[in-house]
Structure formats: C-alpha cells, structure tokens
Automatic annotation (TrEMBL):
Keywords: Cell membrane, Membrane, Transmembrane, Transmembrane helix
Protein name, as recorded: LysE family translocator
Location in the cell: Cell membrane
Keyword Transmembrane helix recorded: yes
GO molecular function list: amino acid transmembrane transporter activity
Pfam family, one: LysE
Membrane-spanning segments: 6-27, 39-60, 117-138, 150-172, 192-209
Membrane topology field: Multi-pass membrane protein
Organism for this UniProt entry: Photobacterium chitinilyticum
Chief location of this protein within or outside the cell: membrane
Length: 212
C-alpha cells in the first residue's frame, strides 16, 4: 500500500511533530490534570476520531478543495473560535458547588470526547496540515493510488498520535492525582478548563493559516 523506503523518513517526521506542543496537547494534558486519566483518555480518543475523519477527507480530495477556498477556511476558523469561546464561557459560569469529585469527573469523559472531536474538525489548520503533510510521502513506486497511500499514512499517523497522547495522559494524570484531592483546586477546576478553552480560541483566531 505504501513505499517502505520512505517509511523511516515519514516516521521521523511524525515523531518530531508529536513532540511539538500544540493545541491538541494542551487540551489533552489539561483535561487529564483537571479531571483525571479517564477524561484524558476520552479527550485523546476524540482527537484520534477527528484525525481519522480528516484523513479520509484528505484521501478523498475533499480537504484540498476546502483548503483552496479562503472563504471556507475563514468560516471554519470563525466557527471553531466561537465554539471554543462558548466552551470556555460555559466552564467559567459553572458554579464551584458543581465541582465533581474523582468518581463524578468520569461522567465528563463523553463531554470532553465530543469537544475534542468538534474543536479539531473546526480547526482549519488541522485540515490544511493533512493537505500539506501527507502528499509529501506519496510515492510513485507504490502500487496503490495516491488516495490509498494517504489513507494508510494518515491512519498510521493517528495510531502513533493516539499512543503518544495516552502516554501523555498517564504521565500528567499521575501528576494531577494530588490536585484532584485538593478541595481548593476542585472548586476551580472548571475555571481552569475555561481558561484553557479561551487560550485555544485565541490561538485559533489569532494564528495565520498556511497557504496550501
């Protein structure tokens, strides 16, 4: 399905990308720190789900069509920023009395999964990334079509990304265990996540989109 001679270069590039801090890492790490490992795992799965969707769109050529339309990219950016701002506002206005304990926090897992999926799909930079990154490793020596190669490469990227994020969840979640037992932190954990969503919104709205 792919040219294995380019695989070492591809894997090196993927590992380098995974080690660069970004909005996905911030959301997953902060979720694990604020609500525990289970919530962090679901946030990681949400990120992987959106990655698979973006991979399929890139392999089908849909992402390239969207990426070439400046208006579509700006609409995505505004929708994504508005969604993140709403999430931040919802967290900020939550009463401290609603702070969950360790067991109740697990109920937030599905919510963080959904937020991770939507925020990534509404991020035009994520869409453009797949358009620009995957085609670089499509080889004319492989028997598979360019779309099939991009699909395999994208799925490999998502698997490696998920494994990395689960490792991150384990590390950060372990460090955050004492915080989850701290009453003062627990009364402010929603506000901490609200601040994270505001930072992500500013990150998205203020950043310049790369040119496809």
């Amino acid at each position: 399905m792919i040219d294995f001679t380019v695989l070492p270069v591809y894997l090196t590039a993927v590992i380098a990308l995974l080690l660069i801090p970004g909005p996905d890492m911030l959301l997953i790490a902060s979720s694990s720190l604020s609500y525990g490992k289970k919530v962090g795992v679901f946030a990681s799965l949400g990120n992987a789900t959106s990655g698979v969707v973006l991979t399929i769109l890139a392999a089908m050529g849909v992402s390239a069509l969207i990426a070439m339309n400046p208006i579509a990219l700006q609409v995505l950016r505004l929708l994504g920023g508005a969604y993140l701002l709403k999430m931040g506002w919802d967290c900020m206005r939550t009463s401290p009395a609603d702070a969950p304990d360790v067991e109740q926090a697990s109920g937030l897992a599905k919510t963080l999964y959904r937020r991770a999926v939507i925020s990534n799909l509404l991020n035009p930079k994520a869409l453009i990334f797949f358009v620009l990154f995957l085609p670089q490793f499509v080889s004319t020596q492989a028997t598979a079509s360019s779309g099939e190669q991009m699909l395999v490469l994208g799925l490999l990227l998502n698997v490696l990304g998920l494994l990395f994020n689960l490792f991150l969840v384990t590390m950060v979640g372990s460090l955050g265990q004492p915080l989850l037992k701290n009453e003062k932190f627990r009364t402010n954990q929603h506000k901490f996540m609200g601040l994270v969503f505001f930072v992500l919104a500013i990150w998205l709205l203020a950043s310049q989109l790369p040119t496809p």
